[in-house]
Structures are given as structure tokens and as C-alpha cells.
Write a structure and sequence with these properties.
The complex is a heterodimer of chains A (112) and B (117). Chain A is an all-beta fold and 112 residues long. Helix content of chain A is 0%, strand content 54%. In chain A, strands 1, 3, 4, 8, 9 and 10 form a six-stranded mixed beta sheet that branches. Chain A has a four-stranded antiparallel beta sheet with strand order 2-7-6-5, with no helix packed on it. In chain B, strands 2, 4, 5, 6, 9, 10 and 11 form a seven-stranded mixed beta sheet that branches. In chain B, strands 1-3-8-7 form a four-stranded antiparallel beta sheet, with no helix packed on it. The chains are: A mainly beta (112), B mainly beta (117). Chains A and B meet through strand 3, strand 4 and strand 9 of A and strand 4, strand 5, strand 9 and strand 10 of B.
Chain lengths: 112, 117
């Protein structure tokens, strides 16, 4: 979850299907997790967050699941749309002090 | 909602010159601002954390004399890349928070594409 990847894994999804993006983290001291969406040439855009004392949170078409036992975080996007095509990053706060640390990212490509 | 404005969105400069990037919080007071660097197809790497009125805290491996950060007010932080070289070419992104991220969230600027020729 904290490493910088030399390439981005890609998830190809048919329009209308659900997408699941996964993220693993290594430090159980993480207090807070955020999912971001980044389109080409733009800054990250907040999608949804979850605190470490929760295991699920839902937003509009998105759900974040947190499994602290295996240090795993996932983002589920319902009825994926072409506008969802982007790179998605998980980020965590607290493990390395008062700062946000990003995971490697996953590229989502939505096929019409 | 919270808005962070970053300028310029792109800049091309000659090797050896300096470039300043501005990050402004438009509708909130940012007690803390963060500067990130992102290479193509990679994640965001934190460069430094700046708090208003105090010196920035740099991450390991980031040259503080090369990447000068100033956080002179609660709405403005600047990053100056001094004596830029082609290897400094990257996407630089700032973010700001009005307090504890869990309470106030993190808002990112739109990024600055720096190309050093």
C-alpha cells in the first residue's frame, strides 16, 4: 500500500458492471483511509473515506470496505460508467506520522 | 466545498533557472499544506509538509535547498524549484487541510506540469 509502482495495474470493466479495486496496507497504526480518483493531468479527487474504527462506508455508487485483520481496503463502484475511467489511489493517514501516504494506484478502463 | 488553486498548470523552463509554483486555499484557512511529486504512471510521493509561519518538514531524500517551500499565510504556500534540471521535470501537486484530515479532509490542487529543457 505504500510503495511506488513502476507500472499501474489495470482493471478493464464493461460499462454497467461493478468494479472492485483493492489496496493492501502494511501498518496497523493507520487511522484513516481515503480513496482518490485521478484523471490524466489533474490532481486527485476525493471519492470516499473511512476511519479505522469502521469496516464499511457507503457513498453514492461507491462503497469502501476495510478489513483490519488482513490490512486490506477495497473500493467498489456500482454500475461503472465511462466517466469512471481514471487512476484510483488509496491513501492512509497516521502510520508514518501526520501525513497522507499513497498506494501504488490502479487504472480503471471502462469499455462501452 | 474546499477549493485549492494551483498555478501555473504547466511551465517550461530552461535548465539552471528557478520556477515558483503557488498553492492557494480559496475558501478556507489551510493550517497545513503538503507538496507532492508524481512521475508518469507512478503514485504521488510526499516531498514536504508546510505549516503556516514555520519551516517546512522535508521527507527523506528531498533536497530542501533545491525545493524551497514558503507558507507565509494561511491561504498561500509556494514551492520554488531552484536551479532546475531535466530530472526535475515532473507533475507537482499541492494539497491543503484546514485542520485534522479526518475532520476537515484533504483537498488537492490541479497540479503543475514542469518541463525543464
Amino acid at each position: 500500500g505504500e510503495s511506488v509502482g513502476l507500472h499501474l495495474p489495470t482493471l478493464s470493466v464493461q460499462e454497467g458492471d461493478n468494479s472492485i479495486i483493492n489496496c493492501a496496507y502494511s501498518n496497523s497504526a493507520s487511522d484513516y483511509f481515503i480513496w482518490y480518483k485521478q484523471e490524466s493531468g489533474k490532481g486527485p479527487q476525493f471519492i470516499i473515506d473511512i476511519r479505522s474504527n469502521m469496516d464499511k462506508r457507503q457513498g453514492q455508487r461507491v462503497t469502501v470496505l476495510l478489513n483490519k485483520t488482513v490490512k486490506h481496503l477495497s473500493l467498489q463502484i456500482a454500475a461503472t460508467q465511462p466517466g469512471d475511467s481514471a487512476v484510483y489511489f488509496c491513501a492512509e493517514w497516521g502510520a508514518a506520522g501526520n501525513k497522507l501516504t499513497f498506494g501504488g494506484g490502479t487504472r480503471v478502463l471502462v469499455k462501452p | 466545498g474546499a477549493v485549492v488553486s494551483q498555478h501555473p498548470s504547466w511551465v517550461i523552463c530552461k535548465s539552471g533557472t528557478s520556477v515558483k509554483i503557488e498553492c492557494r486555499s480559496l475558501d478556507f484557512q489551510a493550517t497545513t499544506m503538503f507538496w507532492y511529486r508524481q512521475f508518469p504512471k507512478q503514485s504521488l510521493m510526499l516531498m514536504a509538509t508546510s505549516n503556516e509561519g514555520s519551516k517546512a518538514t522535508y521527507e527523506q531524500g528531498v533536497e530542501k535547498d533545491k525545493f524551497l517551500i514558503n507558507h507565509a499565510s494561511l491561504t498561500l504556500s509556494t514551492l520554488t524549484v531552484t536551479s532546475a534540471h531535466p530530472e526535475d521535470s515532473s507533475f507537482y501537486i499541492c494539497s491543503a487541510s484546514g485542520g485534522e484530515p479526518m475532520d476537515y479532509g484533504y483537498t488537492f490542487g490541479s497540479g503543475t506540469r514542469l518541463t525543464v529543457v
